[in-house]
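TL;DR need structure tokens for one chain.
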Amino acid sequence: MEIPPLNWIEDYFNNYELHKHAFRNIICQVQSEIQKIIIVDTFNYGRCLILDNEFQSAEMDEFIYHEALVHPSLILHPGAESVLILGGGEGATLREALRYQTIKKVVMVDIDKEMIDCSKKYLPSFHAGAFDDNRVELVIEDGRKYLERTKDRFDVIIVDVNDPLEGGPAYMLFTMEFYQIVAERLKKDGIFIVQSGAASVSENESFTSICHTLSKVFPHVFPYVAYIPSYALQWGFTMATHNPSNLDITGEEIDARIHLRLTGALRFYDSITHHALFNLPKYLRADIQKQRRIIRDKDPLKELYPGISVNK
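>> reply
TL;DR here they are.
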């Protein structure tokens, strides 16, 4: 059977490598004051979000990314009641945090109101109604400015912003000075988690630099990775804390906490997955050890991303 001509998203990893997604149609395409927002329906991965020509998340496998981002810290914390999310415009990070019955308040700070509006309208499976939960305080503001002005302290702080693209809205949320502000806004047993970029054999400069920079602010830093099929590569996350006394728990305790604390069933994260996430391959551990770059305000991390082309 002859395959009809297809429309393609060409996701460039660099100038010499790309990943292609065939899509049915463009659902939404707007230029907000902050960024270019595109939402498309693909054949293999369902509805997908693209921001500033960078692939963000896909309906089919976003649960892998968001469960990996949220649950290790909230399960390891002895009993988190307050969470701060910086970014996370799809609402999926918010959705996962709100699963916890102990959570009394989640403050979500996103710089782009139009992104939130698009999510509410076009990405219902991502947020699953999370924006309407009465525990949520939604703030439209730059995440760093919010942290600089707030006096509140949180049990868990999650940074789920775009990669630090040159000219983008997020690169000043990856510096040592920013992490120092974060540290001041954590409670005694607080845990910080940040999405940390690609962690592949050929592309891990951002990931390893973030790990090294965090180690200059926090005495205990725990990098981990998950393979995201729609990204076609391994993705990095980094957890940091001043108080690791509650982090060394058994697999049985992890599963018990999932059972007691969470509402709804998880599709990716459990005790087996937890330990797999933190068991980095040898080459990646070596690259983290070799990294010496400290990301600073005066020398921020800025990726030069070739960008996505949407061919129709």
